[in-house]
Amino acid sequence: VKIFAPNIEQRDVINHLKGSPAEEKRNVLVESARLARGNIQDLAELKASEFDAVIFPGGFGVAKNLCSWAVDGKNCTVNEHVNSTLQAFHSAKKPIGLCCISPVLAAKVFPGCEVTVGQDKNVDGRFPDAETASAIAELGCKHICKNVNESHVDKANKIVTTCAFMCKAPLHEIFDGIGTMVQEVLKLA
Asked: Are 12 and 28 in contact (CB under 8 A)?
């Protein structure tokens, strides 16, 4: 297992204590190294031939830094190294795991694929970003409704997705869904 991140400037920096933007600049690779305790490499160095699968975590950083979904929605662009990584694994017929908001990366890069970001309706207030499912469909992909503790496997494309924090759920349910995604990716590897 190796961890990679793009060597780019973050779109913005948020002070999570206050919930507001901070007036500073940070690098995605440097911040990712802080979280990974330094054991990380530049995404530009990743070679699909050296790995059995790739998994992209989710989070708002994906929607802001790995692509421009947070600003542009379905009209977003995908970071060139993220795009080439996804394309390389897909071309090599190696599994791709995506959770939380990161299934939109597959929706942009692989028209016609199947993904989940949870539900397409805000069921009991648990899916406040349910409109993402409609945007995925507008991109020519099929959104599959799943509960937070489940994942979806697009066998034709070897893409495994789960909604994670796209659902307001207890952490143990989110953990279970991410666990099923990882298990399914490993089965396909």
From this structure: no
CATH 3.40.50.880 domain span(s) along the chain: 51-188
Each of the 189 residues of the chain gets a pLDDT tens digit; together they read: 999 999 999 888 888 788 888 888 888 999 899 889 888 999 999 999 999 999 999 988 999 999 999 999 999 999 999 999 999 999 999 999 999 999 999 999 999 999 999 999 998 999 999 999 999 999 999 999 999 999 999 999 999 999 999 999 999 999 999 999 999 999 999
Candidates 99, 33, 34, 25; CA nearest to 63 is 99
Positions marked catalytic = 100
Domain 51-188 has CATH 1.20.1090.10: no
Confidence (pTM): 0.94
Q: For tokens 């929607």, what's the residue?
A: 63
